[in-house]
Amino acid sequence: xxxxxxxxxxxxxxxxxxxxxxxxxxxxxxxxxxxxxxxxxxxxxxxxxxxxxxxxxxxxxxxxxxxxxxxxxxxxxxxxxxxxxxxxxxxxxxxxxxxxxxxxxxxxxxxxxxxxxxxxxxxxxxxxxxxxxxxxxxxxxxxxxxxxxxxxxxxxxxxxxxxxxxxxxxxxxxxxxxxxxxxxxxxxxxxxxxxxxxxxxxxxxxxxxxxxxxxxxxxxxxxxxxxxxxxxxxxxxxxxxxxxxxxxxxxxxxxxxxxxxxxxxxxxxxxxxxxxxxxxxxxxxxxxxxxxxxxxxxxxxxxxxxxxxxxxxxxxxxxxxxxxxxxxxxxxxxxxxxxxxxxxxxxxxxxxxxxxxxxxxxxxxxxxxxxxxxxxxxxxxxxxxxxxxxxxxxxxxxxxxxxxxxxxxxxxxxxx
Length: 416
Description:
Blueprint: E1 9-17, H1 24-32, E2 39-40, E3 53-54, H2 68-72, H3 76-92, E4 104-109, H4 115-128, H5 137-141, H6 145-154, E5 160-161, H7 169-182, E6 188-195, H8 200-208, E7 238-246, H9 247-252, E8 259-268, H10 281-293, E9 303-305, H11 312-326, E10 334-336, H12 339-342, H13 349-363, E11 365-366, E12 389-390, E13 395-402, E14 406-413
Parallel strand pairs: 4-5, 4-6, 9-10, 9-13
Antiparallel strand pairs: 1-7, 1-8, 2-3, 6-7, 8-14, 11-12, 13-14
Helix pairs in contact: 3-6, 7-13, 10-11
């Protein structure tokens, strides 16, 4: 391994479009107040679906960030990604111009990409023939387009990529961006995840895999991570974006610093297409690697934003992984699943959850896990039930795990 001096990396901007708020400020207020963003699906008639609930983004206006022509040529997932990226740049006060454009990059992950466009164009193909398909179909649906369009609309000419690692995609994007800055390939990175997969085919597919909650009579209480009555995850949509910067670059322009990013752990279970390896061994290794990368000990961790999907397999496995990685200290760490409020954004989840983790550090306040009424006996850690908690947060982790066995942990700490 090449020996090089690692650049320090800090978070200077955040952007979020979520089921509980369309800016990072609204999102944070929703989190600490325990807001519920889950309701009956409005985007399409879900009456024949086994799952009829989701965490949809409400009152989103892409024209606040994009002109009508550009917005029309984007799938909803790209609209979310570009819009949240513009929010984050404004929040960071980072202006991209001819002098710095080649030093600013973009990595935005998505698990599914433009599935709504694909579904719509398939209908056109079947009903009207192949010559009526849109010439924009392919560039609208491919998963890398949120990253590409963000560069086009911001002028960022540095490293550009897209992680497509299912529900770990957003976290992989942030981790990979962290590495780019550490290694000197960029001075700043726009990074995170976005998803807009609340569509008829997508919901049907996840339901067929028996992954989704069918608590259709009670949407507000359907997503209940770590609860013994959980029956599957609830889909969400939106985007979460961080601006990561090399420390000296941020200081030179007087940027506000939310937190420092110090660690990135990434592993694979190499076990099963959809199920985590028993005992959470792969997830535990991701946590351990993130701690090692950040020169952190388990005793330094204050808070973990859990993957916490509300599925029978994940919650028990993740709890076991945290215990294995942190030892006895696992019982002293505050843990919460913000998916209880937003639903599961798939490839976008790592983005909004990294935003939540960074804001927990910046505000010394931990979001709750709502709907945790009857804890699963094997889930016996401190999941901050029901109500947010004012508490000093010096070091925080964000976990993301995806189909295919992808495990990612990001580590942040207070900047000092």
